[in-house]
Amino acid sequence: MRVEGYAAVFDRVDRAGDVVRRGAFADVACVPLLVQHRGQAVGRIEAIGEDARGLRVVAVVEDAGVARAVAGGALAGLSVGYRARAVRRGVWREIVGAELAEVSLVAVAMQPAARVERVSAV
After folding, report:
1. Quick check: helix, strand or coil at residue 97?
2. Is the pLDDT of residue 30 over 90?
3. 45: pLDDT strictly greater than 90
4. Is 72 exposed, middle or buried (0-12, 13-18, 19+ CB in 10 A)?
């Protein structure tokens, strides 16, 4: 199964009070695709990069059980595991530079707008 969506959305406050700014993932490379930020990779990322909205991801889910959970809506969110490299402090913590470690399919995304937007056959 192929999934497409946003693992991070720019300029929106997440549930932890962080805001990811455009350019935070400018030098991103492919990273593992996990579930709930744990365990072994459940697939592979085919394309990843920033666009005007956020960090867009196209990935193939190779684990059949995870694919069923995504298709059924149980894993409808996307999330990033990262290490902040450059931060501005203000009302919110603004992430302006980050090292991406992984992208996860999640049940509840920290950033509510970070969602799987399209599911298709490989």
Report:
1. strand
2. no
3. yes
4. exposed
Which residues, 6+ apart, have CB-to-CB distance to 90 below 8 Å?
none
* Predicted model pTM: 0.94
Question: CB 82: neighbour CB atoms within 10 A?
Answer: 22
Q: 104-114 as b/e, with b when 16 or more CB fall inside 10 Å?
A: bbbeebebebb
**Residue from 7, 31, 4 nearest 110 by CA:** 7
Gap between the Cα atoms of 93 and 17, Å rounded: 7
**What's the sign of the alpha-carbon dihedral 54, 60, 107, 100?**
negative
pLDDT tens per residue across span 59-90: 999 999 999 999 999 999 999 999 999 999 98
Contact 7, 57 (CB under 8 A): yes
For every residue of 65-76, DSSP letters joined together read: HHHHHHHTTTT-
